[in-house]
Input
Amino acid sequence: MIVRLMGGGGQFRVDDGLMPQLNELDEAAVAAAERGDEAELDAKLDEMAELVRSQGEELPEDDISSSDVVIPPSDLTLEETRRFLTDDGFVPDLPAS
Amino acid sequence: MAGLMSRAATVIKAKFSKLLDRAEDPGETLDYSYERQLQLLQNVKRGVADVVTAKKRLQLQADKLEQSLVKLDTQARQALAAGREDLARAALEKKSAAQAQLQDLDQQLQALEQQQQKLVASERQLSAKVEAFRTQKETIKAQYSAAEAQVRIGEAATGIGEQMADTGLAIQRAKDKTEAMTARAGAIDELVESGALEDFTSDQTQLDRELAQIASQSQVDSELEKMKAELGSGQKKELES
Output
């Protein structure tokens, strides 16, 4: 499956076998976000990104495949991460046409 | 709450599926999306330029502070040599305040540098993907029936939409940081102008004036000594001859 590291980290193809490990970290990240533990959230997000970088194969920059999952960047504040994950999203609007 | 990873992917896809709904005609959808991509590329270039400008401004302030450190150190030594420990202490206190500010500026500069690197990486990625999209859109337009094209457009637009989201986020974050720092640099300038915070690099501070006074006093003293010595030896010579 394809994973994007949000924050300019690029996209990686990872083996499906890596998912249980990623999901475990993801659950820990969610728990950290829910109890407002920003340091722990950042640590888990960094761990996830590092796992993907070390085990995955980076896609070329001109590849326009969409990703199956997206890992948010760890340099967002807790509040920003929450906004990022709400329905409106923290994803900025595109430039006005 | 579902996992962060799948949630983030869903949010991004939802946001950019709007792009696909814009036009009935697949060809039009492609052109519209491509137009947006080019706009975003312009925005990211402007973002990089803004960060560079903010960095230059902070660097100028840091340079000024560096100069003031050297100057205050020299002044402290001069004051101490002149036996004015009170002035030396005042100079060293200012030096320590300037050092703290400099450290703060250095940290901000590093933060801006990181934002710049992320923006540049994002620009490079987006640029490569936009080019790939452009080629693909021409192929899709030329070779596929409307129904097939719709599917392929969906794939291409979603893939590039993700990159657009990532780049958009990088621009937003760089903008927030740059604005905050510009405001802060402006606030420092304003404080200096209003005199609330003494400009370390202004030509004449109280310390300068007192030191100048000491210097001129000691120059007078040394000239007097010199004259006395000359006169003394002259008198001696006269006596000897």
In short: Chain B has a mean pLDDT of 82. The helical segments of chain B are 4-21, 26-81, 85-143, 146-194, 206-240.
